[in-house]
Design a protein that fits this description.
The complex is a heterodimer of chains A (316) and B (328). Chain A is an all-alpha fold and 316 residues long. Chain A contains 14 helices and no strands. In chain A, helix 8 crosses helix 10 and helix 12 runs antiparallel to helix 13. Chain B folds into 2 domains: 232 residues, Rossmann fold, CATH 3.40.50; 69 residues, no CATH class. In chain B, the strands form 2 sheets. Chain B has an 8-stranded mixed sheet with strand order 6-7-8-3-9-10-12-11, with helices on both faces. The longest helix of chain B is centred in the middle third of the chain and has 18 residues. The chains are: A mainly alpha (316), B alpha/beta (328).
Chain lengths: 316, 328
């Protein structure tokens, strides 16, 4: 098992290098010279040339990349030339917000999706199953900005139960924090459950056709044990994948939802950096988010091994 | 035979398919007495597995079963799901064909044994665990203690089938149905598994149904043999009587198709020519008549009935049976 973990960790190295190269190249390809952005419209060509030299922009791209990477390996991701904040400061300020949103959204998605999937698989083909599958399909095609607006209208405008926008740190007032978080998390959760439900449902229906389910029935086990142990456990692999991918995606913040609900998370940081051409912040954040995604996938792999002994023993 | 432990009476299994109704089991009558062994023999698709699933009430949802399945005085087809569940695994156990797929890949051997035992017997976990170790030892698995924490993929096919047998035996069933228990295994393992089944059957005095396509498997190990073809039982007799004198040409052809040790090498096997009839397009006459070398006259227009001839125990469905003491 230790060997398995070490091998998987080793795989991460080339992936992370590729991620850093792509991040750097894409950021460099953006139109607009950083020196012009910093100096503004009134800059003289001499000033621009001098700043380009100071920033190292007159060097070839691979040299700049290596320089950037060297600093990153020393823990220096750069500093915004607008706010003076370092990338790490900016990210660590906002990560808890996006992280909380992601956890709540995924919990809501799982809380709706998993029971529905089990119920549908147990009664596959029934009117209930067809209705829920149809509903999931409908929900899948509702964009988050629409459900966000509908939820705001319902809970904030009509019922006046929850605030429409804003944020209070959890450490200041946990209850107020949760009140601000409910609507954005619900918006994301409503987008998550249909995928979870559809994947788990089809996996469980396939599992229920297996020989070992017939044998479990022939052993006289209780229907609940057959459903929750014999069918759910082998089906939960793809559930882990899809949850992992969702979480990985939400590490980068939910750009639209954070904007609508005015949550100062990673997504808002990214959007702001793009608007203000804050390339240093942009590069750093994208790299950190990508690394988070890769690490999340690594954790998913580890969970696989925990769930499926065949992977743990290197048979699959 | 009213004292039979299991009696299947007039069982019919119909499966709806896109090409029409498929009659998988066609008016089958069978009995197994307590402690007795019945072999059901036939080629692939003859309905023998469907018959076993019908006995266990484990048919696919779409399948329709009519007739009665009397087990220990109760009609299984009319039993509530809960009563049936208490019977399965406890009194009525099964070993499936493929041990690669019949054990749950993500649960340990121990879990799969213990869950059956605690479900049906009044034992706590420690006792169930102890019993599991004894069962694994009884089916010839070395180091049974360690096996409990292992997963099916860590065991060979033969070992997995032994585990499946241990699961089946775990609650001392009255009847064990072994559905092609050796078909998926290496030839070298087959005899071991069959001997194990025979030994445990004798020791526990349980009734057993062995389903196979191999007449050789049932030869020395059963009390009675039923030969199935196209969903029907075409010949049924006590095993010694059947092998002494088979009357149905299909049985004879099935036996002739077995490889034998006493023929010269490279002799072609007398395979049965043609294929079984399309079960969604039943024939008017005898189902075997298109492939039968004795077929003549009414064979293709009228269905022969399964009926006794010289002795009451030996039944066959044929208009032109192989004459006693030689070929037709």
């Amino acid at each position: 098992m230790l060997f398995f973990v070490a091998r998987r960790l080793l795989y991460l190295v080339p992936v992370l290098i590729a991620v850093s190269v792509l991040t750097f190249v894409i950021a460099s390809l953006l139109p607009g010279d950083l020196a012009y952005v910093i100096l503004g419209d009134q800059a003289t060509p001499e000033n621009v040339a001098a700043l380009r030299h100071d920033l190292g922009l007159d060097q070839p791209i691979w040299l700049r990349y290596l320089g950037w990477l060297w600093h990153i390996l020393q823990g220096d991701f750069g500093r915004s030339f607008r706010t003076g904040q370092t990338v790490l400061q900016a990210v660590s300020e906002r990560v808890p917000i996006s992280f909380e949103l992601m956890i709540l959204a995924e919990l809501i998605g799982l809380a709706i999706g998993v029971p529905l999937a089990i119920a549908c698989a147990a009664k596959a083909g029934s009117a209930f199953d067809r209705f829920m599958t149809g509903s999931a399909f409908a929900m899948l095609s509702v964009p988050t900005f629409l459900s966000a607006i509908l939820l705001i209208y319902l809970f904030a405008v009509e019922l006046r139960l929850l605030p429409a926008t804003g944020y209070v740190p959890f450490t200041e007032d946990p209850l107020a924090n949760l009140r601000f978080m409910v609507l954005p998390a619900l918006t994301l959760g409503l987008a998550e459950w249909p995928g979870i439900m559809r994947v788990l449902r089809s996996d469980m229906i396939a599992a229920l056709q297996e020989d070992y389910i017939a044998l479990a029935k022939a052993k006289g086990l209780k229907p609940s044990r057959i459903l929750f142990v014999h069918a759910l456990k082998p089906s939960s692999l793809t559930l882990v994948t899809i949850t992992g991918i969702n979480i990985g995606r939400l590490i980068g913040g939910a750009v639209i939802v954070e904007s609508i609900f005015a949550l100062p998370g990673i997504g808002r940081l990214l959007v702001g950096a793009i608007y203000t051409r804050d390339l240093i912040i942009l590069q750093g954040v994208v790299l950190l988010v990508a690394a988070g995604f890769v690490i999340m996938n690594f954790i998913v792999d580890m969970l696989y091994a925990l769930l499926d002994p065949r992977i743990r023993h290197g048979h699959a | 035979m009213s004292g039979a432990l299991l009696s299947v009476e007039n069982a019919v299994v119909d499966l709806p398919t896109p090409r029409g109704n498929l009659r998988a089991v066609d008016h089958v009558d069978l009995e197994v007495g307590a402690g007795k062994t019945l072999g059901i023999v036939g080629e692939s698709g003859c309905g023998k597995t469907m018959l076993s699933r019908a006995i266990l009430q484990l048919l696919p949802k779409k399948a329709k079963l009519s007739g009665r399945v009397m087990f220990d005085g109760q009609d299984l087809t009319r039993l509530s799901a809960e009563k049936l569940r208490k019977l399965r695994g406890r009194s009525l156990a099964v070993v499936f064909q493929d041990p690669m797929t019949s054990l749950n890949p993500v649960l340990t051997i121990g879990t799969q044994l213990i869950e059956t035992i605690v479900e049906h017997l009044e034992l706590d976990l420690a006792q169930a665990r102890q019993r599991s170790v004894e069962l694994l030892a009884a089916v010839g698995i070395p180091a049974p203690e360690q096996r409990l924490t292992q997963y099916p993929h860590q065991l060979s096919g033969g070992m997995r089938q032994r585990v499946a047998i241990a699961v089946a035996l775990s609650c001392e069933p009255q009847l064990l149905i072994a559905d092609e228990p050796t078909t998926a295994l290496d030839v070298t393992i087959q005899a071991q598994i069959l001997d194990l089944l025979a030994r445990e059957q004798q020791r526990r005095h349980m009734a057993m149904i062995i389903i196979t396509h191999d007449l050789g498997v049932v030869a020395g190990r059963t009390d009675e043999v039923a030969v199935m073809y196209a969903g029907r039982v075409v010949e049924r007799a006590p095993t010694p009587a059947l092998f002494k004198q088979m009357r149905m040409p299909y049985t004879e052809a099935l036996l002739a198709a077995l490889p034998k040790l006493d023929v010269p090498p490279h002799t072609p096997l007398p395979a049965i020519s043609g294929r079984p009839p399309d079960p969604t397009r039943p024939l008017k006459g005898c189902s075997f008549s298109p492939r039968c070398r004795y077929s003549a006259g009414r064979c293709s227009t009228e269905k022969p009935r399964l009926s006794p001839a010289e002795t009451l125990e030996h039944l066959y469905a044929c208009f032109h049976p192989i004459a006693a003491g030689g070929g037709a």
